[in-house]
Amino acid sequence: MFHTLHDFTLHAKGLSYLMAGLLMLAFIPFWFFIVKKSTRDKKK
Amino acid sequence: MNQPAESRTQLLSPFNIITGLILAFGGVIVILRFAYGLSYATNLTHTTTWGLWTGFKLVFVALAASGYALTTAVYIFGMHEYHPLVRPAVLSGFLGYTLFICILIFDLGRAWRIYYPFLVQAGFTSALFEIALCVALYYSTQFLELTPIGFEWLGWKRWRKVFIAGTVGMTIFGLLLSILHQSTLGALFLTVPRKLHPLWYSPYIPLHFFISSAMGGVSMVIMVGLVCKRVFGHKMEIKRETLDRLTIGLAKGCSIIMAVYFGVKVVDISLANKWHYLFSGWGLWYLVEILGFVLLPCLLYAYGFKEKRPRLIRFTAVLVILGVILNRLNVSVVAFNWQFSLEQRYFPHWMEYVVVVFLITAGIVAFRWVSKRMPVLYDHPDYKAGH
After folding, report:
1. Closest chain A C-alpha to B271 CA, distance in angstroms
2. B146-159 pLDDT, tens digit each
3. Residue B330: CB partners within 8 Å, gap ≥ 6?
4. Could you tell me if residue B4 is inside a domain?
5. B138 lies in which domain range?
6. Which of B63, B68, B230, B346 could join B48 via S-S bond, C-beta 3.0 to 4.6 A?
7. Is some CB atom of chain B closer than 8 A to the CB atom of A12?
8. Is there a domain that residue B37 lies in?
9. Which among A2, A4, A8, A15 is the top mutation candidate for probing chain B, defined by the most B β-carbons within 10 Å of its own β-carbon?
């Protein structure tokens, strides 16, 4: 329960920064998964 | 390579008969709409002024993004290996915008006033004015991009040379216009924050619409390529193996776009602290859209790209297209006026569905007509060096 706009913004933005950071971290292995050549392609 | 006229037996093919019946029936409904007004053919009221046709306006524009997506990839990013798919993509985009204009006229009526926003009373502060201007300019640009096809068909070499020279400029102009109007269609809903369910409403809805149009457009290119190969295989110059390779490449790009879109949607929920809405019926429906039609296809595209599985990618493209349709209909119809009781809720009239099917059929027939006669799926023998 938020009593002031400041409390709400602090909570919401804090969580958002956390989510954005986690998503960006998760994007790195996803990017490498997409971009990196598979062993099947390397053998060819 | 002019194709001979169809024989009588070809004219009475099952495809022509079925589409002819749909077009005839739909045409009658359209005439009735204009003769007796909106209330005759729709369930729209003063409280619900946007309905199924508005939803499909958004759908047609989103899926017509195949044009700007592929021309940008080929002419701006230099991915020339995708060149064989440019003309089918631009043609499907042009027809998508044609359907948008048709359904807009059916919804608004007074088609003779189509020029009013430009010459009589421009509403410079209106988002709809910006959409009208951008769509008109982009429609003209796409038409100009398609004129070389017509000139090759007619044998007008000099005119073809002039318009081919402007391809890159038209592509850049088209990309700018697409970014503007794709996002502004989402911005329309910024005016109705209370009417749209909080899970779908966001101050960043213009960004959501633009990114989802990109993924819808790329998926449409995959679908159009598949359908053209299946239906017009004998006319399509590109080999099956090459088409599969291009499909796999498109899946890579679309997977990244969808990953970004998913991230943007998740951050949007946390920015407005909308987590509690997920634990409701509406939340379940939202999760179906985001997890089933965004995250899952994103992962399927990535897997399909890595394992080189074009059939899986094509199935995923259908999933993405359905997801874009679902998103647009959710925003404009399903989650719109979400607080209304069941008695007040809008449900489309059967004639509205008929008109939508009529327009989609007309688009397919037009695409087929152009592709069978003009150098869309193959290079004209006189210009094989490239265009």
Report:
1. 5
2. 999 989 888 888 98
3. B200, B285, B286, B289
4. no
5. 13-380
6. B346
7. yes
8. yes
9. A15
